[in-house]
Amino acid sequence: NGTILLISCYELGHQPMGLALPAAFLERAGFTPVCLDLAVEGLDEETARRAAFVGVSVPMHTALRLGLRAALGVRQANPDCHICFFGLYALLNAEYLLGNVANSVIGGEYEQPLTELVRALHESRPPDVEGVATRGRTAPPYLRRLMFPIPQRAGLPPPYKYARLETAHGRLLAGYTEASRGCRHLCLHCPIPPLYGGRFFVVPREIVLEDIRRQVQTGIRHVTFGDPDFLNGPKHSLGIVQVMHEEFPRVTFDFTAKIEHLVRHGKLLVEFARRGCLFIVSAAESLSDNVLANLGKGHTRRDFLEVLRMVRMAGISLRPSFVSFTPWTSLQDYIDVLDLVEREELLDSIDPIQYAVRLLVPPGSLLLSQPALRPFLGPIRPQDFCHPWTHPDPRMDKLHQDVTRLASKDAAEGTDPRLTFARIRELAESSRDEREPELESLVLPQQPAKPLRLTEPWFC
């Protein structure tokens, strides 16, 4: 019946969970999938020709763009195979994908529908499976609780192919797992709420711990918890890291959490630090209360500064990510971020590409219902999987182009990030006519010198 081929294109520099879990579900059902991560290995024409089913994992916009290119190549080599896109960005872009290359798309908790789809095709039945959208059949996101197996990583490239933890004494192998999926919150610019609608699902503790144990056996010494928000279920998350630390006291970790949650659960920070937390990634997005309100972030500038204080007091580094360009971000807002980063010694905690991130408005985004966005919005560009928008201040669109070009070039050439930051500041300063007053700041503890980081520079 041909090969079942699962393809990942990009998952932030770590072993793709978008392959490890579907592979485990399929193996439990009696199938033998082949996994391919195009971020670190190539796709040859013979593999594409042998495939009867090709599943393309698209958990983010970058992966979707690369996945489309890969799927078109597979389709050219193998016109009769069934191509399915699954993951966060699949269902949001169902119309374009089904109209151009895909036979099916799946969103939400996709592993079970994917398994049932493969079973139906294997048995020569129509792909009329709950949660599976096809060219003649729409389907909502699949949001049922799953019976999780242990992620299957045996068929994936080894950990040394991926991002590592950079320390003062060298680089350590880094692993990845997830303790939950979905999110309680409804940030307007996030791709998760259109699918999950404020719901989240925990992965059973023992499944997560066994996944960690198996990765430690392969040599990993640091774990990234890639949940959309590790503090959606704080007791669940703390319980996992408590056991992990008991079993592997020298293994460290990092996680992602909302500023809002870090404020609410600040008392847990010391507990996380005691159990090996080195840094926390948080989507600060902006320091402008106006921008934060338009994005529905649920926190303020002052909240961010308070979290920075609390995290440092606990002995953890904060690695904030930003949506540096939005229709509501003024030039002074942009420069204010640069001022704060320099003043609070966050230069080594933020990769320069963060200063180039532009608001993405995909199909189905909650932002599309907001009157505040409409004056700036253009018609959708289906091939780009987003709605373009134009800033009311032409200087900002030019600055975005210049910063993107600079940050990308410097990253490719291995330029010192501090030099890139200085160049970005020069671009921003040259965009305005005169200096404007700085915004209020709190007095914060000093940032530790050269905080630890992963070698992969993308955090969102």
Strand order of the largest sheet: 14-13-12-11-8-7-15
What structural category do the secondary elements indicate? alpha/beta
Principal-axis shape equals: globular
Q: How many beta-strand elements?
A: 15
Taking all residues together, what is the mean pLDDT?
94
What does this structure look like?
The structure is a single chain. This protein is of the alpha/beta class. 36% of the residues lie in helices and 16% in strands. The protein has 15 helices and 15 strands. The strands form three sheets. The chain has a seven-stranded mixed β-sheet. A six-stranded mixed β-sheet has the order 2-1-3-4-5-6, with helices on both faces. A two-stranded antiparallel sheet has the order 9-10. A hairpin with a 2-residue loop joins strand 7 and strand 8. The radius of gyration is 22 Å and the shape is globular. About 3% of the residues have low confidence.
Quickly describe the structure.
The protein is α/β, with parallel strands linked by helices. The chain has 15 helices and 15 strands. It has helices at 17-28, 45-50, 61-77, 94-100, 111-122, 193-196, 205-217, 234-247, 259-264, 269-274, 289-295, 301-313, 331-343, 394-413, 417-430; strands at residues 3-8, 34-37, 51-57, 82-86, 104-106, 132-134, 164-167, 170-177, 180-182, 200-202, 222-225, 252-256, 277-285, 317-322, 453-454.
